[in-house]
Amino acid sequence: MLALMFAVFYFLLIRPQQKRQKEHKAMIEAVRRGDTVVTSGGMIGKITKVIDENEVQVELAESVRVRIIKSTLADVRGKSEPAAPAKGDKDKKAKAEKSDANAANDEPANDKAPGGK
Fold first, then answer.
1. Cβ-count burial 61-85 (b if 16+ within 10 Å, e if not)
2. pLDDT tens column, 27-39
3. β-sheet with 73-77: strand ranges across
4. Contact at 8 Å (CB) between 45 and 33?
5. How far is 106 from 117, CA to CA, in rounded Å?
6. Mean pLDDT of 89-111
7. What is the CATH code of the structural domain delimited by 31-81?
8. For residues 34 and 115, what is the distance between their CA atoms, to the nearest angstrom?
9. What pTM value is reported for the model?
C-alpha cells in the first residue's frame, strides 16, 4: 500500500515538476541578445547583453537597462514572435482609424452650450 501511494505521488507530483524544471532550464540557457523576456516580477524587456552564464542585461524601457539573474526569468519570447491580435481587433482598429480620419476632416465643435454659459 505504501509503495502504491509513493508511485501515485511520483507520477502525479514529482515527475511533472521535474519535467517543468528541465524545460525552464533549457529555455534559460537558450536566451540570446534580442530576445524578449518576462521576469518573475512581471516586467517585460529585451535582452541587450548576455553578461555571463548567470546574468543578462535587459532593457525595460528606452535607455533603462538592468542586470537580471537568468534564473528569475519566467518566460522567453523569441525575436520573431509577433503578438497575435485577438479576434475582432482588426475590425476595431479599422473602425477607430476611420473615425479618426472623419474627426480630422470635421470642423471643431463649439464647446459652449446655447445660452452663453
1. eeeeeeebebeebeebeeeeeeeee
2. 998 899 999 999 9
3. 64-69, 55-61, 44-50, 36-39, 73-77
4. no
5. 24
6. 55
7. 2.30.30.100
8. 60
9. 0.56
**Residues 8-12: what's their mean pLDDT?**
88
Amino acid at 104: A
User: Which three cell numbers, joined as nine digits, stand for 23?
Assistant: 524545460
68: closest CA among 60, 77, 58? 58
Give residue limits of the domains in the chain. Answer: 1-30, 31-81
Whether 36 and 77 have beta carbons less than 8 Å apart is answered as yes
d(CA 110, CA 108): 7
Chain centroid to CA 38: how far? 5
Q: Which three cell numbers stand for residue 8?
A: 501515485
